[in-house]
TrEMBL record:
InterPro entries: Amidohydro-rel, Metal_Hydrolase, Metallo-dep_Lactonases
Protein name: Amidohydrolase-related domain-containing protein
Residue ranges occupied by any Amidohydrolase-related domain in the UniProt entry: 11-302
Pfam family of the protein (one): Amidohydro_2
Coiled-coil portions: none
Organism: Thalassobaculum fulvum
Gene3D superfamilies for this protein: Metal-dependent hydrolases
Length: 304
């Protein structure tokens, strides 16, 4: 890594904290869920807090961060937001956050108002119902982005000026593009690059076409994060095409990089991810690299 790379400021646009025993994280404390990286028992064994996060940064200059909701007990989605603000008041981290919301719930208006009352909240996330594979996709399935109940809650985001952080497999991005078209005042930030885990030629073709359709909507952005492949170590060679194709489709000013830590510690160290991203983007213009690692996230999440 060059001196210039070491000095490149980073806003980590997607990471998690959790304190096991404080609040409740059903997927970490109560029961094991199907997980895209397979065995995640290592995540269930310890809390992940400020000192862990700062220690993982190593030689990379992480100046600010955006906390992504960590699937806190959905019976109290604003509880996590309250806890994180207390954490910020004590430590200065995180600098912005994405809250949990369930658009079809009867209390969605109250939940969104609750999140919006906190100064660090910029967005909310709900993972819509998703088919396990492209051939199992059913348009308009209950809980999907085309479900009228989902959309009824989603339309309330603009009332509070909140973004939508979307995590879904790429074969649902057509519905995401429709959502962006129908609600042009709400920004959609696609998480984890559309989850391109199938690296076969057919899988990559499907992913690129879906990403291109979403990129055509001007009120969409993407996080280059969470692109691990089950059973394989994160390497620049494995990820190069995904990263560069995403930048080509969306442009650097609509892309931001993120660690997805500690989840992606299952497939790489923090250093492996950020050193790899710096290597992959080494030939880009300096302004584009600055956008990817810092400026896009700064503009989108306005970290305190």
């Amino acid at each position: 890594m060059t001196d210039a790379d070491a000095d490149l400021p980073i806003i980590d646009a997607h990471h998690h904290f959790w304190d096991l025993g404080h609040g409740r994280y059903p997927w970490l404390e109560d029961h094991v869920i199907p997980f895209r990286y397979g065995d995640y028992s290592a995540l269930r064994q310890r809390s992940y807090l400020i000192d862990d996060f700062l220690g993982d940064h190593g030689r990379h200059r992480v100046v600010k961060s955006v906390h992504m909701e960590a699937e806190w007990d959905p019976r109290d989605p604003v509880g996590e937001t309250r806890w994180l603000h207390a954490l910020h008041d004590r430590t200065g981290w995180p600098h912005a956050m994405v809250g949990q919301a369930w658009f079809a719930r009867e209390d969605i208006a109250e939940v969104l108002a609750g999140h919006a009352a906190f100064p660090l909240v910029r967005s909310v996330r709900q993972k819509p119902a998703a088919a396990p594979s492209p051939d199992a996709f059913v348009a308009g399935a209950p809980g999907s982005m085309a479900d009228p109940a989902f959309r009824a809650g989603y339309r309330l985001l603009s009332r509070h000026g909140l973004h939508y952080d979307l995590q879904t497999p790429w074969w649902h991005l057509g519905e995401a593009a429709d959502l962006a078209r129908d609600f042009p005042d709400t920004l959609i930030v696609l998480n984890h690059t559309g989850l391109p885990s199938d690296r076969s030629p057919a899988g990559l073709d499907g992913w690129r076409n879906a990403m291109a359709a979403l990129a055509d909507r001007p009120n969409t952005m993407v996080k280059i994060s969470g692109i691990g492949v089950p059973g394989q170590r994160w390497t620049p060679d494995l990820q190069r095409a995904i990263v560069l194709d995403t930048i080509r489709l969306f442009g650097a000013d609509r892309c931001m990089v993120a660690s997805n830590f500690p989840v992606d510690s299952l497939c790489a160290t923090y250093d492996e991810i950020f050193a790899g991203l710096k290597e992959i983007t080494a030939d880009l213009a300096a302004a584009d690299r600055r956008a990817l690692f810092h400026d896009t996230a700064s503009r989108t999440y306005r970290p305190a």
